[in-house]
Amino acid sequence: MGCINLELMEKIIDILGKTSHKYIISKGPRAEEYKPLPANCWGDAHLPQMNILPMVDLVITHGGNNTVTESFTLGKPMIIMPLMGDQFDNAQRLHDKGFGIRMDPFNFTEQELIDSINKLINDHSLKGTIEPNF
């Protein structure tokens, strides 16, 4: 539910709008309060996450169990910005294993986020290493 923190989301979205990548934004229950999204972003209050995840190259998440499990199962690297509970442990484990980057959601710079996005999207050695282990 990181999407309910409008100040945090606006900071992230403003940064995303400065990159050449395209983004899908889950706005959640406060969707009507968001300012207009940049041209390279699209979003809505409710999104079919499991339909969208197979099409993306990277997931930026608060790191809850559902999103982490779904993203990991589909082999998607993550930028995890934990806010509470299990999210801190999930973020640290993914970071330690090299499948994602843990970032403090309240203490990161524009350049840190952009560099993390580019690093994970362009890490060709990572592609194919995140595979389900059933």
From TrEMBL:
<dbReference type="InterPro" id="IPR050271">
    <property type="entry name" value="UDP-glycosyltransferase"/>
</dbReference>
<comment type="similarity">
    <text>Belongs to the UDP-glycosyltransferase family.</text>
</comment>
<dbReference type="Pfam" id="PF00201">
    <property type="entry name" value="UDPGT"/>
</dbReference>
<protein>
    <recommendedName>
        <fullName>Glucuronosyltransferase</fullName>
    </recommendedName>
</protein>
<dbReference type="GO" id="GO:0008194">
    <property type="term" value="F:UDP-glycosyltransferase activity"/>
</dbReference>
<keyword id="KW-0328">Glycosyltransferase</keyword>
<dbReference type="InterPro" id="IPR002213">
    <property type="entry name" value="UDP_glucos_trans"/>
</dbReference>
<keyword id="KW-0808">Transferase</keyword>
